[in-house]
Amino acid sequence: xxxxxxxxxxxxxxxxxxxxxxxxxxxxxxxxxxxxxxxxxxxxxxxxxxxxxxxxxxxxxxxxxxxxxxxxxxxxxxxxxxxxxxxxxxxxxxxxxxxxxxxxxxxxxxxxxxxxxxxxxxxxxxxxxxxxxxxxxxxxxxxxxxxxxxxxxxxxxxxxxxxxxxxxxxxxxxxxxxxxxxxxxxxxxxxxxxxxxxxxxxxxxxxxxxxxxxxxxxxxxxxxxxx
Length: 227
Description:
Blueprint: E1 4-9, H1 15-28, E2 33-39, H2 44-53, E3 58-62, E4 70-76, H3 85-108, H4 112-145, H5 152-175, H6 179-210, H7 214-226
Parallel strand pairs: 1-2
Antiparallel strand pairs: 2-4, 3-4
């Protein structure tokens, strides 16, 4: 998934100015394009303003941050009549897959600074994805379906443990400039991650969508986006 992404550095301006500037830039984005914003202010007010100004138009995902600095990836989606868990979390799967492959591509070209940065972005994004699933999505699925201890979310949680370990190994290999090590950990990771994502996208996400009416589903997806 190749996405044309612009970057907006709004760290030197106040929150009101940053909100106005971000909204102007978002207005110009076409479906399939994205904007990465950097801000010295917690970005939730900016993201909520974008949701109010452009309903259904954007998906959000946080990037790695440092003290006093936030980074967010904002993607212009094809406007659909309703947000769904499947749309949002499958989009995030694709975004993360692209980061992983880009990191390996930089490593093949011996661009180790780029490889490490992308691997760390991938690790941060995947850990965040797991956290919103376990903290928000899985409880919503369990409440809606009544499937708890013996349900699919328990399998997903166990697989998340392995996924985190393989990602940690891949990032460590990138820091050591060990391309063969990155490839080994990537192979181990994909052996778990590919079927894991397929089960989520074919069973867990659509079931969650079906068990929530429109208003509940909209609220759930916004919690995932902003969580």
